[in-house]
Amino acid sequence: MSLGKKIYIYLLVLFLIAFPKGGFKIDEVPITWGYVLLAITFFLICIRTLVSPRINISKIRMIAFGAIVPFQLYCLVVFPSNGIANPGFYMALLTSFIFMPMFFLLNTGGYLDRIDLHYTFRVIKNAILFVAAYGIILFFIKLHTKQFIEIPYLTVNADDVGQLENKYINRGSMFKLISTYNNGNIYGISVLMLLPLFDQLEKNILKKAVVYLSLILTLSRTVWIGIILFQVLRLFNKKLNIKTIGMLAVSVVVLSVGIFYMLAFMNSDASFLFDKNLGGRTTQFTSLHKIELISSKKFRLIAEIIYISVLAEFGVVGLLLFLTAMLTPLFLYVTKLIRYKNSPVKKALFHGLLMYLILSWSDGAILYIPVMAFYWMIVGLLLSKNPYFQGSMYQSTSTKKITPSPESYLLLLPHNLQGAGRLATPKDVPDSV
Known about the structure:
single chain; mainly alpha; 433 residues
């Protein structure tokens, strides 16, 4: 991969994962550098396609995108006719479910099949470690100095400077870990989506511990549930035996001790974990007193409990279309229609999506930057047939030795050399754009 492409991927990861809130606002609509780069990339690829029309989108991506189209049409037709109560959240809705799927499934799909994922994943892994370490430092600086470190246009939106304490991050005697995400729940949900991938890529225990500690310090019940859930999902990546179960038990005990220590630090107890008010979310259930088949309401937002909120705001039809859009990529994986399904990295990507959809019963933060950018990025990678995933299948950490076939070595050659060997077959060559 050329130096220019590496720099571009670095910048994209930097402003999507490391500094997702950096930017400014136009009429309360946040404009972030990461989303600006995505938009620029989108239009550059569109222009290139017009100049040199070589579009070859894989069937699996067409199926995944086709599953989203009915929900997109619903958002474009129903809500403008009903009226829009919150233009900012409506713009976020269109960005999350029209622009992002188009970008990661159609616009850049072929590129994801060919880019150097060794380099890309290394940059992603380092970005996750950075936001975790920075978040921990910021947490303790705030705890001891009572002040946040704010860098306008980078760690915080320029229009939000001095307003971080107003973002529902107060836990009484302390503030949640927010890192560069300006909100503990958004940070936690975003990193949890990437946690299985990070855990698979990173082998250093201390670096993993930094990320786990940052998640615990979010002081979020939803995030804590997510950490425990991930420990259970990890069993599916390992051979089930006494050692594996023992490691799971130790992990759960260590995490539980950490969580209960934080409860004591917050001058709270186990009742915090079993709050009957669900952190103020029980009011969302009252919106279900009148369920419609197709929404006739003005669109306001999608609140924390995603499925309840979608049912209340979108109606029964809207919820069914929403679930179809979100679940289809996971269905494609489970039904073995995705290439390199047995790759440990692909399993990690699948677990990231599954965790998000489960945790959305508590808090999905679905219309907040950068949650849906991460979701559709992971979907794009899950559907990819990049040869990297074929290679990752032979990098097993188990004691069982696997000998790859000669064809698999050809797949790891540069794209322009793959056709040079007799053993290479057309089905093994990634799509071109």
